[in-house]
Amino acid sequence: MDEVATAIADPVRRHILTLLRDEPLAAGDIARRFAISRPAISRHLRVLRESGLVRDELVGRQRIYRLDPGPLAPLINWLAGLVRTDRWERHLDALETEVYRTRRERRSSGPAEHRREHTA
Questions:
Q1: What counts of helices (H) and strands (E) characterise the chain?
Q2: Where are the stretches annotated Disordered (predicted)?
Q3: pLDDT per position as a tens digit, 15-50
Q4: DSSP strand E in the chain: where?
Q5: Quick check: helix, strand or coil at residue 58?
Q6: For residue 10, which phi and psi values (nearest 5 degrees)?
C-alpha cells in the first residue's frame, strides 16, 4: 500500500493514471501530452509499473501501457475507513431512541389534565 501511495503522490503520475483509465496508450502518446521530457515520463511510467498500477506490453516497436486499478483496493479501503459514515447513523439512532422514550413517558403519565397539574 505504501508503494501505491508513493506512486500516486505525484501529480504527473496521477494524470497518467487518469489518461490510462480511458484507454491504453503508447509511451510516446503519453509523453506528447506533457510539457516535461520523454525520459522524465519514462521514469514516471517505471514507478507506476513497479507499483503495479500499470502494465506494459510490447506491440511491434511500441510499448503500450494499461491501467491496473487492483493495487488501489487496499488504499481505497483504508481511506474509506477514515471517513466513516456510521457515526451519523449512530447519532440518528440515539435521537430516535430518545424520541420514542419521551413519547412513551408522556403516554404513561396519564391524561392531559393530569400532566398540566404537575407542570405548572
A1: 7, 3
A2: 100-120
A3: 999 999 999 999 999 999 999 999 999 999 999 999
A4: 25-26, 54-59, 62-67
A5: strand
A6: -90, 130
Report yes or no: 80 and 72 within 8 Å, Cβ to Cβ.
Answer: no
Beta-carbon-side half-sphere exposure of residue 32 (alpha carbons within 13 Å):
5
Rounded to 5 degrees, what are φ and ψ at 109? -80, -5
Pairing relationship of beta strands 25-26 and 54-59 according to DSSP bridges: unpaired
**Cα 109 to Cα 20, 47, 100, 106, distances in angstroms:** 67, 71, 14, 5
Residues 13 and 51: their CA atoms lie apart, in Å, by 11
Residue given cell 398540566 in the structure block: 116
Is residue 20 within 8 A of residue 54, CB to CB? The reply is: yes
Query: CA nearest 69: which of 20, 31, 113?
Result: 20
HSE-CB for 92 with a 13 A CA cutoff: 5
Q: What is the pLDDT of residues 46-86, one digit of tens each?
A: 999 999 999 999 999 999 999 999 999 999 988 888 876 67
Task: State how far the Cα of 53 lies from the Cα of 40, in Å rounded to an integer.
Answer: 18
